[in-house]
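Sample 1 of the test manifest.
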Amino acid sequence: MTEPTQEQVEQLTRAFERFTRKFKVAEAAAAADNALNALDAQTLVFVGDNPGCGTGDVARYLNVAMTTMSSAIDRLVRKDLIERRPHEDDRRSVALTATKTGRQAIEDQIAAYREACRAMLRSLDPREQRELIRLSEKIAEAQT
Amino acid sequence: MTEPTQEQVEQLTRAFERFTRKFKVAEAAAAADNALNALDAQTLVFVGDNPGCGTGDVARYLNVAMTTMSSAIDRLVRKDLIERRPHEDDRRSVALTATKTGRQAIEDQIAAYREACRAMLRSLDPREQRELIRLSEKIAEAQT
DNA sequence: CAAGATAGTACGAAGTTCGTACTAATCAAG
DNA sequence: CTTGATTAGTACGAACTTCGTACTATCTTG
């Protein structure tokens, strides 16, 4: 827990700008098939991870207006990627779940991500690979 | 350059998903002031890095239609963040440059990025910080 | 210099986001 | 149990974004 130097921060920033770009390309590639925009893709993944969640849950998580999320869900339902079912306990709510097609689309989405990660690791030798993963996890945990 | 294991790839993917999310928040925070959408922000940064570039250069780099870029540039010009000047050699082209206000906005944009990177580094001890930067640069260079 | 390629913009159609207004269901007292 | 406030969600329309088509102006090449 030491304050990094200005120079170090800038080096990492430059490297990460390139990573971010790489991930965007990966996202775009995964979306190409289903023609999902960024919001719809993120919505689909969230619903896949949180079956039974409601419109508001996703809206809050992705930081968009409730009505925007309602539209996004409309599009995903029309493409048969998710389903709106009545919620058991609260009849105002809907319970969202990914359809079989939707789960497949999520897999493709994540596979593209994973492919980008694999490409990164491939540039390193085995010891470095282990070290990068260790450091990444340490950071991810610290951010809470 | 050794093939990483499936397990390693997944660990890194999970960690990077969290990073990506963090960067999106940073981007959103930087955009909040100027109310720039993602495309406009990226366009502004590119023009800042490539003064004198043309509409088509940015469009190709960001992978959008020429007309889309023309609109984005319209918006940035209207906000006085960039300028369209006639190109010296080729009078069909425009030469784009960031205005003083624009350069300031870019600084804010990048500062938010840098802040996210600094936060990451802070979770590590000095030896680990140096190692993370070294590995990141190695990967960034290998990707070409 | 004529034909074709290139850089860019105008315009309009299709789609996205979000605020306002509304319905339906739940909760909290009284 | 009813009434008033809250909560989950959708319908609708305005403002904005993206992009294809059509067009102008300017190189480039044979």
